[in-house]
Each structure stands twice: as structure tokens, then as C-alpha cells.
Amino acid sequence: MEMEIIRVKDLAVSYKGNPALFDLSVELESGRLIGIVGPNGAGKSTFMKALLELTPKDKGEVEIFQEPVKKNKKRIAYVPQRSNIDWTFPITVIDTVLLGTYPLLGLFHRPGKKEKAWAYECLKRVGMEAYAKRQIGELSGGQQQRVFMARALAQKPQLYLLDEPFVGIDMASEEVIVRILKELKGEGNTVVVVHHDLSKVEKYFDDLVLLNKTIIKAGPVCEVFKREHIMQAYEAEFQFQSFLQEETFQQSVNAEQV
Ligand code: ADP
Ligand code: MG
């Protein structure tokens, strides 16, 4: 049964008076693979953080699972942008995955045999079990992202929020993660992915939220992923690109004249 799993109304977020998001209202359905797409600085990460109350809102309401966010944090796994993680922190791969089991444990309980076996299973699912004892900082970008995927799996959530999971990783890791995200959806979970590369949007997602400080368009990929909407969301970037093309054109004209 599909329902509105995320409901955002009139959201506004600013940093020291600079608006990052405004007039943002959107409803996202459960059981879908949803892409949040927009140019650099569009507020995609801010949107995800605002959903999780990791950044203060100026105004607006957010409901997840039709309740205030804090009632359902255990059911939500968040994988932040890789660039925001301190990779020098001394922790092994298996312990990183075990962290995912903490929300399921009661207060003052430590993970035991059962949790460790489950963490291994999650590592296996991302193809990283051979690296269990390694330090997280020794791994490649793609391997690190797979371990963070395993940590999210270990939490047994129903909603996954991933911020730019494919940036700076190898193709094999990207394929592993995409396959798992599709499987998770098949199992009835909802997956929301911040993504800025337009080339694979149609291949990866069911629904799309085109964002640039506010919602440009949201809905099924076939309705949203259209030239007019993309142009609107990426307006500034396109203008810059055509400016560059103009420049090169002028230069080649000048060169011919010489
Ligand atoms: P995106 O993820 O789409 O690239 P962000 O949500 O990271 O965009 O940022 C949106 C805007 O808010 C950008 O202009 C960015 O510089 C600004 N911003 C983001 N985080 C902060 C912060 N912690 N302090 C001040 N400005 C920020
Ligand atoms: Mg971002």
C-alpha cells in the first residue's frame, strides 16, 4: 500500500539570513526510488538535513510516516555526503556497520553475537565482508560508500536517505549500490537519493524532485524529466555554459581572421 511517507509544507531554511530553501512544499510516496536533483548549491543537502531536523528551519512542517520526524528516527537511515565524514577516525569496517544496530538496541545495551552476525550479513550484501577488520580510512571511496550502505542496512529502516552516494566512487561500487537500492524498493522500502548528475536519472529513479531553492517540479520521472523543467532548474548553469561556448566561438572566429 502506497502512502505519503514524507510530507513537507511551506519549508524555509536560511543560513545567516541567506535563503537556502523557501516556499517548499512536497509530498513523496512510499515504496518508490526518489531522486532529489538540482544544480550545485540548490539546497539538496539542506533539504535532506531539514527532513531529519539536523538543521533548523525558519518555518514549515515536516512529517515522516505521517508523524513528527522525531517519533520515527529509528525507521530512517541517513547516509551523509562522503565529503562530510571524517575518514581519519580510527574505526574498523565491522564496527562502523555495527553502529547501525545501535538504534535497535535498548539504552545501555551493547551489540552482542546476534548483532555482529547481522552486521556481517549486511557487509556481505555489499560485497565487503573480506574487509571487516580493516580501518575505514584505508578503503577506497567506493568501498567506504559500500560500508556506509551496509551500516544503513544494519539499522533495518523503512526509509533510506542518501546524499550524493555516487560521487567519487568507482563504477562497480555504484552498480552494487544501485542494485541494492532497487532491491530495497522491491522489499517495500522507500529510498530517497540526492543526485546531481542528470545522465542516469531515468535509469535510476521512479520519481524525481527537481529542486533549486524551491520545488521546480516533482512527480514521476516521465513527467518531471523534461527539457523545460530541467532548463528552469539549471538555468544559471546553462547560461554560464552558453556563455563559455560563445567565448570559444568568438576565439575561433578571431583565430580565423588572423
Ligand atoms: P546542494 O547540496 O544542493 O549543493 P546545499 O544544501 O549544500 O546545496 O547548500 C545550499 C546553499 O546553502 C549553498 O549556497 C551553500 O553555500 C549554503 N550552505 C549550506 N550549508 C551551509 C552552512 N552550514 N553555513 C552557511 N551556508 C551554507
Ligand atoms: Mg549537497
UniProtKB/TrEMBL annotation:
<dbReference type="GO" id="GO:0016887">
    <property type="term" value="F:ATP hydrolysis activity"/>
</dbReference>
<dbReference type="InterPro" id="IPR003593">
    <property type="entry name" value="AAA+_ATPase"/>
</dbReference>
<comment type="similarity">
    <text>Belongs to the ABC transporter superfamily.</text>
</comment>
<keyword id="KW-0067">ATP-binding</keyword>
<dbReference type="GO" id="GO:0005524">
    <property type="term" value="F:ATP binding"/>
</dbReference>
<dbReference type="InterPro" id="IPR027417">
    <property type="entry name" value="P-loop_NTPase"/>
</dbReference>
<dbReference type="InterPro" id="IPR003439">
    <property type="entry name" value="ABC_transporter-like_ATP-bd"/>
</dbReference>
<dbReference type="InterPro" id="IPR050153">
    <property type="entry name" value="Metal_Ion_Import_ABC"/>
</dbReference>
<dbReference type="Pfam" id="PF00005">
    <property type="entry name" value="ABC_tran"/>
</dbReference>
<feature type="domain" description="ABC transporter">
    <location>
        <begin position="6"/>
        <end position="238"/>
    </location>
</feature>
<keyword id="KW-0813">Transport</keyword>
<keyword id="KW-0547">Nucleotide-binding</keyword>
<protein>
    <submittedName>
        <fullName>Manganese transporter</fullName>
    </submittedName>
</protein>
<dbReference type="InterPro" id="IPR017871">
    <property type="entry name" value="ABC_transporter-like_CS"/>
</dbReference>
